[in-house]
Amino acid sequence: MATIVPQPDTQVTALPSAAANQAAAPVQAPAAVRTRDPRLDFYRGIAMFIILSAHIPGNRWTGWIPARFGFSDATEIFVFCSGMASAIAFGGSYARRGWIMGSARVGFRVWQVFWAHIGLFFFIAMMMAALDTYGSFDKSYANSLNLGHFFNDPMPQLVGLFTLTYVPNYFDILPMYLVVLGLMPLLMAMEKIGLWAVAATSIGIWLAANPYVIGLGPDGLALSAEPWSDRKWFFNPFGWQLLFFTGFAFMKGWLPKPPVSKLLIGVALAFVVLSAPFGAWKVFLWVQAWTPELAETIRPVWSLTAEWRNKSDFGLLRFAHFLSLAYLGWVIAGDGGKRLIASGHSIGARIWAVVLNLITKVGQQSLAVFVVSMALARVIGFVLDQSGRAITTTAIANLTGYALIILVAFAAAWFKSQPWRAKR
């Protein structure tokens, strides 16, 4: 760093002390520009596109989402990446401001997500009610989401909605995320004891939701989804928190990054490929068409592994499958995501740079995109009901949906930047 020193032939006049100190201070070199690691936002963005397609009723494209080829699906990507993002967003608050202020920030996020959930429910319920009230269709759109109880007897359901004791299936991801976020202060308190306490707490909560692992029966810790039945939340937060805090632990540095080795790559790839017929009916039917004898050997395993691949409680096979996929994705992206970043000035590199920017922008604004996509999926499903589900029509519907959530992501980023504030 260069220090400002008067030249011998330069006349120096007296300066006020503050100005003199400033003049004598070393000139700071420009801060190095940090390139944002694209891996987190890229994979979370990919998950958001898949989630949109997965929620469009009667969508042909759902035949090709990850859920059709293994135990885990886009939900795992979303939850794992949310854990990583939370380590960035909240982990620093805990480190800088302590447990109380860090937990206060988490509480504020819980407050935001809660009202996003409430707003999403009422907006979609309004849309379904409008279609049933003012349209003459051959189906009830309100009943297609199992909202009949809400409209027929709204008072207890309103109480249930706000206390999270009434959680219709389509509206269960954000409540799960709420409870998992609410567990963060507990895990951060355990960190003061030791990382072993963090791991023991998270694994213990997961075992409470999955007691079959230690031979305590199929019914574990869960939350009621509706007062008129025994149905539980489809996404049990006590099971799914294990995946969330695994992502949190990797980003926080509690877990070291895995080494890149041919052995681990081979094991992960073998598990993903060989487990496919045991976790996806689509692949199982392919095996059955190819060799019926092998399919008959595989078929009994489905009933034996039902609990271990259960989606609601986040079964252990789903965890293993996702970690295998995540490891492969991490290796493919390269250190710091360098293989994702476009290099060179070719047309292909420029196109990829644009695509990467769009996907990562969607990943960066995942909450806004998710909320809009859940409502958008119902609108697209309605349009497909009226226009038919031909291959071309379905493709146009999905691509239009993708374009709209990209616009939502850029709009959300623009509003967050608060451009109306005077720049200094």
Automatic annotation (TrEMBL):
Signal peptide: none annotated. InterPro entries: UCP028704_OpgC. The keyword Transmembrane helix applies. Keywords: Membrane, Transmembrane, Transmembrane helix. Pfam families: OpgC_C. This is OpgC domain-containing protein. It comes from the Bacteria. It comes from Parasedimentitalea marina. The chain crosses the membrane at residues 40-57, 77-95, 115-137, 157-181, 193-213, 233-251, 263-284, 314-333, 365-384, 396-415.
